[in-house]
Each structure stands twice: as structure tokens, then as C-alpha cells.
Specification:
Blueprint (H helix, E strand, L loop, with lengths): L1 H24 L5 E2 L6 H18 L6 E4 L6 H12 L3 E3 L21 E10 L2 E8 L2 E10 L2 E4 L4 E3 L1
Parallel strand pairs: 1-4, 2-3, 2-4
Antiparallel strand pairs: 4-5, 5-6, 6-7, 6-8
């Protein structure tokens, strides 16, 4: 009897361990992947991204719902810029790992989903922006301690 109870508790422990490890693997691949991002470079890129969004969407009639938690200089500058331009921005609230996700039965969120990926390859920075099913990307190059667009915006739908 005691042996069966120990075996059952081991199985539960192993299951909990596997679920905890899988939770780490399911993390979303969005955000800023630059080590020690420059606040100045982030602001310049966020200003350029905002200008492109302003060209594509009407500010007073558009709401963006972020897909991921924003905790980097680029994301913070982008959210601030969008709000200053008149866009509504719904941020994701980071919840504890073991919190029960409870969503009330209300109407679905209005607006467009927004996420970004910011990465770096040497002196070349890449911004990838996802707005619903549309993908926008642009490269930025560092030259003489400043950053500039290294090409046109590429749009994929």
C-alpha cells in the first residue's frame, strides 16, 4: 500500500515537472532580442515604426492590442508614440506563472493585434512588425554613433 502511494506521488511530481518545463518552451517569440539595447537607437527606430503605422492606419479609429508584454526601451517608446499620435493601445498584463487565467464572458476585443521582433546582426538592426496578418520589416544600420534606415519598408500580407 505504501509503495503504491510513493509511486503515485512520484508520477505526479514528474508530471508537474514536465508541465513546468513545457511552460518555459511555450514562451512567445516576440519582443526585443538585443543585448543591452541603446535607448537612443530604440527611440529612433520606434519613431520610424510609428511614422509607418501613421501612414497605414487612421489614428482616432484604430486600437492596437499587444500580443506580448513590453518591457524594453523600443516597446515603451513605440507605445508612447502611438498614444501620442492618437491610437488606442491595449497592453498585456504579465501574470504570475501559476495564476489562473480568468476572462469574463464579454464581447471579443476590438482592434488589431500588434507584436514586434527586434534583433541585431553586427551593426545591422532588424525590426519586424506584425499587425494582424500583415508583416512589416525594415533594417537599420549604425553609422558614426547614429542609426539610420538601411532600406525601404517591406510589406507582406
Amino acid at each position: 500500500m505504501m509503495n503504491k502511494m510513493i509511486t503515485a506521488s512520484n508520477a505526479i511530481f514528474i508530471l508537474m515537472l514536465v508541465l513546468l518545463l513545457l511552460n518555459g518552451c511555450v514562451s512567445q517569440p516576440y519582443g526585443n532580442f538585443i543585448q543591452n539595447p541603446s535607448t537612443t537607437y530604440s527611440k529612433v527606430m520606434a519613431d520610424d515604426v510609428t511614422a509607418q503605422i501613421v501612414r497605414l492606419y487612421p489614428a482616432a479609429n484604430t486600437q492596437f492590442n499587444l500580443r506580448h508584454v513590453v518591457n524594453d526601451p523600443f516597446g515603451n517608446a513605440l507605445i508612447e508614440n502611438l498614444r501620442l499620435e492618437g491610437f488606442a493601445v491595449q497592453e498585456v498584463i504579465q501574470q504570475p506563472i501559476f495564476a489562473v487565467q480568468h476572462q469574463p464572458d464579454t464581447e471579443p476585443q476590438k482592434g488589431l493585434t500588434l507584436s514586434y521582433i527586434l534583433d541585431q546582426s553586427g551593426d545591422l538592426y532588424h525590426v519586424k512588425l506584425m499587425i494582424d496578418d500583415m508583416r512589416l520589416s525594415r533594417a537599420f544600420a549604425v553609422q558614426a554613433d547614429s542609426i539610420h534606415p538601411a532600406g525601404f519598408w517591406v510589406r507582406k500580407e
